[in-house]
Specification:
This protein is an alpha/beta fold. The protein contains 19 helices and 14 strands. It folds into three domains: about 120 residues, Response regulator (Rossmann fold), CATH 3.40.50.2300; about 160 residues, 3-Layer(aba) Sandwich (Rossmann fold); about 140 residues, Helicase, Ruva Protein, domain 3. Helix 10 packs across helix 12, helix 13 crosses helix 15 and helix 16 runs antiparallel to helix 17. The longest helix is centred in the N-terminal third of the chain and has 32 residues.
């Protein structure tokens, strides 16, 4: 018998007299492979295939078929059968199919496990906090995720706008499609159109090959336009068109590219002020802010600070292969008394430094001194002023000193990430670079 030959090859085999009993076994017992006749009493092989797909789509099904039912077998393969085995059965060919089917299942299972691991590491971001402010944001995120509407996330630098943008994508029907991030503040104005829309070969000197832009790469998925307020006016019209019409042309191209890309944008600037100053298109502002979501600063959700701090403590303890570290009551109180101008990002940086420098299982208040050094310098600033000369001279010196100190503070809080620092200061990336050079901060 067929089952005997398979058993002799070292496999464990369960047998069923008809389709109904086979279906019962499949529902109760996980199998690596199912071999069934296409035509069975009680339930057909196609019905067995359907049941298997509902229970575990990774289990391959081999269908045995007699002459005259080849068309049915081909249809079964279209419905997901791995292959069919014509009767009379060639045992050597059957074992070849068994090996291939089991190899495919191993690959499918490995891919699923990899996706699950990826999801744990990079999937739906963990939105931490029980404050009313953050719960309101979470509810809004869940509501808008199921729609295809454009979303504008606003809030101070470091509040976690990208975390929420990823949550919107992961909770949406587009979750298995690309999520593409573009930091509009970090890309020079001369390159942003090329980055967003791509170019054709020969469109300019150095364009040796066609390049797909971010909107094209995000087709069927989501594009996240971070710091959208930094978009140059020259490219805003093209962004407006792709939002409205879902089409564009690459630089140097005549072909109209059609895409289905959802736009989630974020900014730490007041776009309405930019519109009033003619630095941002009003029509683009309205298209972006179909659904506006304001992310609260950390100082307005201070009740979330301890769970957030513990989350980062656990995260960095694990990454650094350290025992789990906790905050002392004094450290927690010190953190709650701080205003956190850099918001959650500053908290994350503070905890990371404390974990690295800690030699025990508890973070003490004194371990956080370095994190608050920038604030202390700002508090001491008034004692360092040179009051000589006229009022105008004193004012000018104080203004420049305060500006330099504020820029240095933002750079320190962001670990010298100039894009983040520019966001904290509400200035453009280019302006920050000029100021860093002017004040010789590097």
């Amino acid at each position: 018998m067929l089952s005997t030959a398979i058993k002799k090859a070292g496999f464990h085999v369960d047998e069923a007299a008809d389709g109904a009993s086979a279906a019962e076994k499949i529902r109760k017992q996980p199998y690596q492979l199912i071999i069934t006749d296409l035509r069975l009493p009680a339930l057909s092989g196609l019905e067995i295939l359907k049941i298997q797909k509902e229970i575990d789509s990774t289990i391959p099904v081999l269908l045995m078929t007699a002459y005259g039912t080849i068309e049915e077998a081909v249809e079964a393969m279209k419905q997901g059968a791995f292959d069919f085995v014509p009767k009379p059965v060639d045992i050597s060919h059957l074992f070849l199919l068994i090996d291939r089917a089991l190899a495919q299942r191993r690959l499918l299972v490995e891919n699923i496990l990899l996706k699950e691991e990826f999801q744990r590491a990079y999937g739906i971001p963990k939105i931490i906090g029980e404050s009313q402010a953050i719960q309101d944001v979470s509810r809004n995120v869940q509501r808008v995720a199921q729609t295809g509407a454009t979303v504008l996330l606003t809030g101070e630098s470091g509040t976690g706008k990208e975390v929420f943008s990823r949550a919107i994508h992961q909770l949406s029907p587009r979750r298995d499609k690309p999520f593409v991030t573009v930091n509009c503040a970090a890309i020079p104005h001369s390159l942003i159109e090329n980055e967003l829309f791509g170019h054709e070969r020969g469109s300019y000197t150095g364009a040796f090959a066609r390049k797909m832009g971010k909107f094209e790469l995000a087709d069927q998925g989501t594009i996240f336009l971070d710091e959208v307020g930094e978009l140059h006016m020259s490219v805003q019209a093209k962004v407006l068109r792709v939002i409205e019409e879902q089409s564009f042309e690459r630089i140097g191209g005549l072909e109209t590219i059609q895409v289905d890309t959802r736009v989630v944008a974020a900014t730490n600037r007041n776009l309405q002020d930019l519109v009033a100053r003619k630095e941002f298109r009003e029509d683009l502002f309205f298209r972006l802010s179909v659904i506006p979501i304001q992310i609260p600063p950390l100082r307005d959700r201070i009740s979330d600070l301890r769970p957030l701090a513990q989350f980062f403590l656990d995260k960095f303890s694990k990454e650094l292969h350290r025992p789990t570290i906790h905050l002392s009551p004094e450290a927690a109180r010190a953190m709650e008394e701080y205003s956190w101008p850099g918001n959650v990002r500053e908290l994350q940086n503070t905890i990371e430094r404390a974990v690295i420098l800690s030699d025990g299982k508890t973070i003490r208040a004194e371990d956080l001194t370095f994190a608050f050094e920038a604030r202390k310098r700002a508090d001491d600033f008034v004692h360092l002023l040179d009051l000589s000369g006229s009022l105008t001279e004193v004012s000018n010196r104080a203004s420049r000193a305060a500006e330099r100190l504020k820029i240095k503070q933002a750079l320190d809080l962001s670990n010298w990430n100039k894009t983040q620092a520019a966001g904290m200061l509400d200035v453009s990336y280019k302006t920050l670079l000029n100021k860093v050079k002017e004040y010789e901060l590097e």
